Amino acid sequence: MRTLSATAAALLAAGVALAPATALAAPTPTPSPGATTVTKAGTTFLGATPLAAGQPVRVSASTGEYLYWAFPAAAGEIHEITATVALAQNRSGRSTWTVEVFDGLRRRQACTAGAQTPTADASARSVAIGCTLRRVRPWAEPWSADPLPGTYYVRLTVVEIPEPDLGLPIDVDLLVSTTGDADTSSDDGRLEAALVPPANAGTVLDTEPTVAPEAEEESGWNLSLTGWLPEAGSRWIWTTAGGVLAAVAGVVGFALTRRPSTRRVAG
To answer: What is the per-residue pLDDT for 255?
Structure first.
């Protein structure tokens, strides 16, 4: 009995000793080979800097700034965002940082793992932030907030900090890694197009309709004559018609209510 107890105690001690080693042995995200480092960050959703999964980010910024990046996501993928913020040494107090992820409709996506809002002491030289998103679904009900294929936005900023520490320089290292296969989704639906197309900051989409030269030649002057006329249901047509009717009604009313003059002309 004593031998069995000693054996159980030895196995328990071995398990406790191996647990930290197993946790430390967990793979950490690494940049894709040959990926170009992104050295910029946007300050708004519209100006978010586009990046691809596995593309490392290294930027210098100021404490208190909102930093935005955008990346595409396909159905079946699971994305993990890891960031390290190198802090200034002359800080006066603790600071709390956060990384948030939004889909193309600006809906905040929940994190299933990672230190999304860690706090760094005044003596800390850096703070590690992480967020693992849910698997992107190929389709979802309109009322749900499930992640769908399209563009996703990452926002990193500080949420609590002493006022004297605002504006201090920081260095941010960020990486968006992808696990899972876009072709192995078990859902039986499919989204016809991405919820929001990939973001291309600084480009303007041409939404003006173009007319083929052949059609313009065939229509001749009729196209140029009718092109500037308002439609039959336009508010300009109704406003003009109402004004004309009001003028006619005024003239008719004045003619009906006008009294003849009763003055006599001296003979």
So the answer is: 83
